[in-house]
Amino acid sequence: MSVSFPWLQLDRPALLHGLNMALAAGLSFAIAVLLSVDNPFWAAMPVWVLSQPYRGLVYERALWRIVGTLAGAGLGLAFLHLPHPYWQLLGMALVVGVASALTHVLRGALSYLPMLAGITIGVVVLPSVLSPDSSLDLALSRVQCTLIGVVVTTVLCSRTTPHSQRQTYYQRVRVLAADALRLAAHALGPAYKESDPALSARIRQEIVDLDAQARITAAGSWDAYRRLPYVDVFLYAVIELLAASELIVRQRERGRLPAADEAQFLLEQAQRLEQGHSLTVLEKTGVRPPEQISLARLRRAMGQIRRAETGLFAARTPARRGPHRFLATPARSVDWPLATRTGLISALATFSAGALAFALSSPALELMAMGVCTFSIILGSMPRPQLMSRTMFTGITVGVLVASLYRYLIQGYLVTDWQVIVSVLPFVVVGGLLRANRPTSAWALDANMCFQLASQAGMAAVSWPFIIKESVPLLAGSAVVCSAFFLLPRRTHPRGQALVRRVVRELYPLIRRSRPRLFRVWRARVARQWVRLLHWMGEQAPQGLVSLINLGHGIVALKRLGRRGAPQQTCVSLVCELLEGFESQPQELAQQLLRISQSCADPVLAEAIRDVAQSLLGATPVLVYAYPPNTVPRAVEST
């Protein structure tokens, strides 16, 4: 009879990975002890963070950890020359705040640099404020231990860590584009009235996953970073295909018909793309009859895919010149309110804790302040710290309790350096296996880090009351930070509403300007907000955001048709005047636009007005979500 433990998932690769981490941690600690480096327990700490699923990510995080540690130590030593301890604490808090904010500005492994700079400056400045003579020793030992841990981890883990599966990732990008083509073929087929929610949901989720994994997959390779824009082009083209598919369905609901073989052609191209063959763009066949569906946007999206495919799968990455120069990609977007809020919270918490420790001249409160500084940066770097605060506190508690038992039961009996090294090995082996075990991996990271920090391995033994005096403040500091982040309001819907309102604000320059400029910039921004909303809300994201994209395209089409003559310009001006405040009553406005289209003498302009009206109807759910009834619309703010 076999007994299974659901919390234990250690297959052979995971077991080897855990033992390899334990070897790297033990070897780093041993080298620091044998070299008589102060605070040698710091040397093993980089191991638990630098261990990553891909070799390139290990290299890149190792580089940014060294640079961040050097920057934090250098700034800490510089601030210690300020005339008063409160000025030193204020300078430290300023760096911590900026570093915490930059974790939301910089992307990929590069965000690790400001995080380490903020943590290191706290390690250097906070103890030195109470004991100024130890500042240089603290900074040097921190840098030495970081270099030891990074070098050992890079050498050992790089041998067992696999290379990034970039070709598999690029093939997933192909399959995503093929699925989007199948969705467009479904819109052109006979069953267009029956939507395919499973396919649409899979496409949206794959867009989110591929966007999140792009820089992780490219880490450590300059060539892969140069190919990232082509991945973004694929994602942008898929979003355009989703919007074009919805527009096709709306046109078919009005009685317009597709050509007989267009759906089959798209299915064939989807299969070719999935099999690794080049895509053939749907050709334009002369003048389009009035009763036929417009496929201009579908053709443009397919053209984007073909050019992106040429760049992404080229033997050498082509320069962004010639046909690749004007490829449209989702714009880079930074959540400045989140970054600012995170920076202010981390800076204020760190300064308050440090100032309290200095005012009371309490070494215990100094340890608490270090915990507040470190954990506020780590939790603040997460988009949803509430989800990880309990897991982090669990790991911190386990690490501190085990470290306290180590100091009380073992540390007092150690005499030689080799005894100290051997005494730590069982703990790093268990820690490595817990870190490699998937169910315990999340909290094991913090448990290992806090065990190294609280065990003071390699330092002189102390009495039980002193152990309590050092362990409790560290736990208290982490408890304060984790509780504060856990009690922060869940901002799922407020932030989701803010993202939708940003898209709505971006539409107003298109409405108000006689000739909308930088339309490509608008499309890139809206595509990025669409991806961010899916990242943030997942399956809870409201329906209709694709219709807002179609609304922008419809407005630009109206502006272009208004140049045909004075009657058309008058009609377009009337429509744009009515669109002011469209977010408050989209359904009523859509019905009014449909009535205007019936009285319009120009059939092409009338069809464009109907496109705008149906886009408004399709965007009603997302507009009602962002602007609930009985609230004042805030979309008319200046952009």
Helix-strand layout with pairing:
Elements: H1 12-34, H2 45-50, H3 55-79, H4 85-102, H5 112-130, H6 135-160, H7 166-188, H8 197-218, H9 222-253, H10 262-274, H11 296-312, H12 336-360, H13 363-380, H14 385-409, H15 417-436, H16 441-455, H17 464-486, H18 492-512, H19 519-537, H20 545-561, H21 566-579, H22 586-598, H23 603-618, H24 620-626
Helix pairs in contact: 1-6, 1-15, 3-5, 3-6, 4-5, 4-12, 4-13, 5-6, 5-12, 5-13, 7-8, 7-9, 7-10, 7-11, 8-9, 8-19, 9-11, 9-20, 12-13, 13-17, 14-16, 14-17, 15-16, 18-19, 18-20, 18-24, 19-20, 20-21, 20-23, 22-23
Give an overview of the whole structure.
The protein is mostly helical. It has 24 helices and no strands. It has helices at residues 12-34, 45-50, 55-79, 85-102, 112-130, 135-160, 166-188, 197-218, 222-253, 262-274, 296-312, 336-360, 363-380, 385-409, 417-436, 441-455, 464-486, 492-512, 519-537, 545-561, 566-579, 586-598, 603-618, 620-626. Helix 5 (112-130) packs antiparallel against helix 13 (363-380), helix 14 packs antiparallel against helix 17 (464-486) and helix 18 packs parallel to helix 20. The model is unreliable at 633-639 (pLDDT under 50).
